[in-house]
Amino acid sequence: MKPSAFEKGFDAPLDLTRAEHDALRHLQALEVHEHEPRVTIFRQNARYGTAYIVKAGWLAEMRILRDGRRQIQNFRLPGEVIGLDGLAYSKSLFAVMSLTRVELVPLPLESFEDLQQRYPRLAAIIFVQTLRTEAVLREWEVNLGRRNGFERLAHLLLELHRRLSLRGLIDDSSTDLPLTQEELADCLGLTSVYVSRLLKCLREEGLAEIAGRRLVIHDWDGLRRSAGFDPRYLEGSA
Amino acid sequence: MKPSAFEKGFDAPLDLTRAEHDALRHLQALEVHEHEPRVTIFRQNARYGTAYIVKAGWLAEMRILRDGRRQIQNFRLPGEVIGLDGLAYSKSLFAVMSLTRVELVPLPLESFEDLQQRYPRLAAIIFVQTLRTEAVLREWEVNLGRRNGFERLAHLLLELHRRLSLRGLIDDSSTDLPLTQEELADCLGLTSVYVSRLLKCLREEGLAEIAGRRLVIHDWDGLRRSAGFDPRYLEGSA
DNA sequence: CGCTTTCTTGAGTAGATTCAAGTAAAGTGG
DNA sequence: CCACTTTACTTGAATCTACTCAAGAAAGCG
């Protein structure tokens, strides 16, 4: 059977045994929660119950400040886990929202120690994934702190393309990009007005363009250079 | 015996058994590496060997871009672990530098699975710490992306104060702050010139001041309000 | 005590914001 | 299927936050 994007996310760090694969399949078979696009999965400050493995779809993790300012902290794509921080905090520090239709496989936190016992390598994979997430957050810090608007946007588009492509979710040269300019702005620490101007720049310089909710990268190498993009933080343990 | 800052870092999430305490003590007794201030502990892009538990001192984790721009991604204080990302990446994505004299206790990565076997709760604590680190990085993203210079600086000072205080490292109302304005700027995504001006603001408004490498917070509550600081991301599983 | 690094302050500038108005695109209901 | 409403995007002009350049003061170091 061809591995799904869901399984690819888990396969990346270690090769799984049959039993581990079966455990994953079993989880999926048991129960899958579906949600519409733009639905809140975890509310900020709400108590955690269970975590979920993303089986399909895109999600965004975000913080909203009291005056309405919003910062998107990360995306979650198939094969990644949301709500794991319930292991360290009883109330969520950020919100999670679906960007597309999503399918989520529950991974109850109470049974996490059990998982650690029965499938230590699955637990290890989740730990490694957490470290990968950390690397992404660190890259976003660099993006927000030390790159200008143009570089930030270029970098984000390259990251998304790479993350999707690693999961086999790129059909052709263009990709579905279910983000408004407002949301892009909230990833980049910019305003939507300025993102619109930056996209125009990218288009005019023939680097990339977003049209009809799809992203097309025309000049991969030029884009990489102008973003200072180095994909190693997204790759396996290479 | 009074728990050291080192042990406090590990105590926070779970109470340790005697055996686990002994394991920690044993590690410390075995070998402690000391380093001078402003020394590179991990070079960017270098291969990982071992991780270290910080026993004493401050460190900074940072990324340097090709043109010299620098972003400090996080600090590491006693009780925290550096170099853990060696479990997910073979080459380090960022550099780690000592800010003060530091004492480091080696935690070899090859023996990590062993640790997981023999002391699963120590491994669990390290996992929870990793999730806490993630929360700090997320807060820095918010700081960099959606707060202005004044708020960013105020927020950082409050975070540092809190993190030190949780480890029992605040002597009186003032704290040692081994950071140049250049380094503060590289945490905040600003320039050192502007940080100097912002510090003047803080001083003039009677909120806080840095003098002679020490931080004094005069108006805790005013500072909290102007930073929008909510310390929950630093606390236990409350 | 001289040398270097760090900090301060001023003046001019640029990257990004705000405000505002208009256009295009996407839903919604008759 | 079309008129209506709403949401998303584009563009211009004015403004501001934070930067650059520069030069002098203060502090740390050998």
Q: What descriptive keywords fit this protein?
A:
homodimer; 8 helices; DNA-binding; four-stranded antiparallel sheet; alpha+beta; 11 strands
What's a quick, concise take on this entry?
Two copies of one chain form a homodimer. With 238 residues, chain A is of the alpha+beta class. Chain A contains eight helices and eleven strands.
Outline the structure in words.
Two copies of one chain form a homodimer. With 238 residues, chain A is of the alpha+beta class. Helices cover 42% and strands 21% of the residues of chain A. In chain A, the strands form three sheets. In chain A, strands 1-8-3-6 form a four-stranded antiparallel sheet, covered by helices on one side. A four-stranded antiparallel sheet of chain A has the order 2-7-4-5. A three-stranded antiparallel sheet of chain A has the order 9-11-10. The mean pLDDT of chain A is 90. At the A-B interface, strand 5, helix 4 and helix 6 of A face strand 5, helix 4 and helix 6 of B. Chain A binds a DNA duplex (30 and 30 nucleotides) through helix 7.
